[in-house]
Amino acid sequence: MPLSNITDPAALPPFAVSLGDPAGIGPEIVAKSWVMREARGLPPFFAVGDAASLRAVWLGPIAAVSTPEEAMQAFGSALPCLQVAEAGEIVPGTPSIDGARTALQALEVAVGLARTGSAAGIVTAPVGKEQLYGVGFAHPGQTEFIAERCGVAPHNAVMMLAGPSLKVVPVTIHIPLANVSDALTIDLIRARALTSVKGLQRNFGIARPRLIVAGLNPHAGEGGALGREEIEIIGPAIESLRAEGLDIKGPFAADGLFHSRARETYDAALCMYHDQALIPLKTLHFDDGVNMTLGLPIVRTSPDHGTAFGIAGKDSANPGAMMAALKMAAEAARARIAHDN
Ligand SMILES: NC(=O)C1=CN([C@@H]2O[C@H](COP(=O)(O)OP(=O)(O)OC[C@H]3O[C@@H](n4cnc5c(N)ncnc54)[C@H](O)[C@@H]3O)[C@@H](O)[C@H]2O)C=CC1
Ligand SMILES: NCC(=O)COP(=O)(O)O
User: Fold this and answer.
1) How far is CA 59 from CA 44, 54, 315, in A?
2) Where does the pLDDT of residue 251 fall: very low under 50, low under 70, confident under 90, or very high at 90 and above?
3) Domain boundaries, the chain
4) Which of 2, 38, 68, 151 has the most CB atoms lying inside 10 A of its own CB?
5) Is the pLDDT of residue 5 over 80?
6) Which atom of ligand 2 is least distant from the CA of 124?
7) Is the pLDDT of residue 4 over 70?
8) Mean pLDDT of the region 186-197
């Protein structure tokens, strides 16, 4: 049943968790999350990927399942795993082409299950982007791939990074810093802001979200002396959105937006480029930060970190962000039911 037809949160199916790169820390943090499922109140979930990547790093019980219904039954006693293409020899910390193909297939299957409503949503473990590009992946990241599979235009799929004390939205995402200025347009900022507002309402139950917008340049351009993007692009975008009734302020100097008193004044900060958004978020919430895609018909979250190939297979990966991603996915699914009914 599609999620939009579910009115009782207790009727939600399990979440599909794509395992990401088999040689990264994805399998380990998913297995550790399963171990912590009761202590942390995690929703039922099942892994989608190569079960061998779990076995390579974990001795716990794994149940091979072929449907989310089977996964729901198995979840209490074993980590359910829906097998996709085998990744060949798995050496934690050493990514391979076969592993990248498996990661991509796992993502594809997980998205399909969420789109049909068989899964309550997807939680994606990290992929190695360089490795994915090597197998012909033509999207900058998982966000854009999932958006395409859901029939959503890339500018309407919004990457939001969220932790308990901060939510940030990078307006431009995976592009070279040198291209940021050219990529910033009034239309793009407007699209990100409008989707952010709807996403905060629908996934977080915030009735009237307060947005704040960072400038691109030092001191937000210093009246044009340090750059004109604030005057010609960011400012006009904010003015037009405010005229439509949004609670949105800026552009402000980015360096003053993230201290604790400033964070109390907004629900989400729109940032002009990837690191402007992710540095404060990861500084505050590396171990419980979540990447959520807004603007999709399905719930999608992910831990805020990457594959951490350097520590894969060493049993030192912290599952905190993965557990936060699972919890946030469940809260978002419940919030959507409340919002839509
Ligand atoms: N959502 C996704 O699929 C993401 C994928 N990536 C990919 O991950 C790969 C590596 O990226 P990096 O920039 O090195 O970032 P990274 O997050 O993988 O690693 C950065 C540092 O944090 C540590 N770390 C990361 N997660 C940890 C955890 N759960 N517990 C303990 N330590 C942890 C790593 O060991 C490393 O020292 C790249 O291929 C990148 O494309 C990066 C970010 C997100
Ligand atoms: N730095 C965030 C990131 O890389 C997440 O990208 P995505 O693969 O979730 O689109």
Assistant:
1) 20, 8, 12
2) very high
3) 1-152+296-341, 155-295
4) 68
5) no
6) 9
7) no
8) 98
For the segment(s) 1-152+296-341, the CATH number from 3.10.20.30, 3.10.20.310, 3.40.718.10, 3.10.180.10 is 3.40.718.10
Neighbours of 280 (CB within 10 A): 23
CATH superfamily of 155-295: Isopropylmalate Dehydrogenase (3.40.718.10)
* Ligand 1 center to 279 CA (angstroms): 13
* pLDDT digits 0-9 by tens, 128-186: 999 999 999 999 999 999 999 999 998 899 999 999 999 999 999 999 999 999 999 99
Q: Cβ(293) to ligand 2 under 6 A?
A: no
Mean pLDDT of the chain, nearest integer: 96
Pocket of ligand 1 (CB under 6 A): 25, 29, 126-130, 142, 291, 302, 305-308, 310-311, 317-318, 321
Q: What is the 3-state secondary structure (H, E, C) of 75-109?
A: CCCCEEEEECCCCCCCECCECCHHHHHHHHHHHHH
Q: What is the rounded average pLDDT of the residues 106-131?
A: 97
Compute the average pLDDT of residues 185-190. 98
Reading the block at residue 317, the tokens are 């990966």
Query: Is 318 annotated as belonging to a binding site?
Result: no
Q: What ipTM is given for this predicted complex?
A: 0.97
Give 67's pLDDT tier (boundaries 50, 70, 90): very high
Best CA proximity match to 45, nearest among 22, 25, 29, 23: 29
Sheet with 15-18, side-by-side order of all strands: 62-65, 79-83, 45-49, 15-18, 122-124, 300-303, 290-294, 158-163, 166-170, 268-271, 210-214, 247-252
pTM equals 0.96
- Ligand 1 centroid to Cα of residue 20, in Å, is 12
Q: Give the position, in ligand 2's atom list, of the atom nearest the Cα of 126.
A: 8
| 155-295 matches 1-152+296-341 in CATH topology | yes
